[in-house]
Amino acid sequence: MADPFEVRMRFTAQLQHLNASATSSQKAAHYALKYRDMDEDLHSCILEQLERNSMNNRANIMYFIEHLCDMAQRENHLNFVRMVQKDIFQVVDAVAPSDGAGAANVKVVRRVLQGLQQKSILESDTVTEIEACLKERDTLPEHTTLSPIDANEQRGSNVAQPVLKTNGVMRLDKRQIEQRIEEDRERHKRLKESIWGVGSEDEEFEKLWDEASEIGEDDFLQAEEDAMERRQAVEVD
Prior knowledge:
The chain contains eleven helices and two strands; from the N terminus they run ααααααααββααα. By secondary structure, the chain is mainly α. The chain has a two-stranded antiparallel ribbon. A hairpin with a 5-residue loop joins strand 1 and strand 2. Helix 3 runs parallel beside helix 5, helix 4 packs parallel to helix 6 (106-118) and helix 6 (106-118) runs antiparallel to helix 7 (124-137).
């Protein structure tokens, strides 16, 4: 049997090193399900890391939660799903706090909530209630809280640290800003790929059929004109 402390430490490290790639979230989700007998302890790790890490990492953990719930549903281990349902308000408060520090994460929260609702993990009433709270927190442009700190504020430290502004909004250093922009770009790219992605040939046919307009009189007239042009071209040859 694996050592619980070691499992917890390894899982914590995976959460701390999540990035925009789906692979990192899937790897952490696989690890959590591998040690599903420790699900309550691993869930507490998720909540702890949401409180302790940067806003960038909290956004990554939010996306990871969707991967974990999706995978847990498919493997019929619903304890993770139930715990997320129970603590979803705490999760949202950590990822997009009401003090404005997580204004850049509001869009992340909305996307994940939409995904969890579509997968029947969250009830529509719960998502609506959370959305009402998010409207009050979505008061800043996407990267307003990602403004660079002054050079004087960085002096004396080689470690990238968030700096608290006088108005209480968290401000990030240049490295964290660049990391967030790059991760947002990667997620946007994956989102576009998923939109354009088509499954089986039947799904592609249904998609094209739904997008096609109904045949009308103009279509028949156009077909007759095309046929006449083809006959004339054959006669000329």
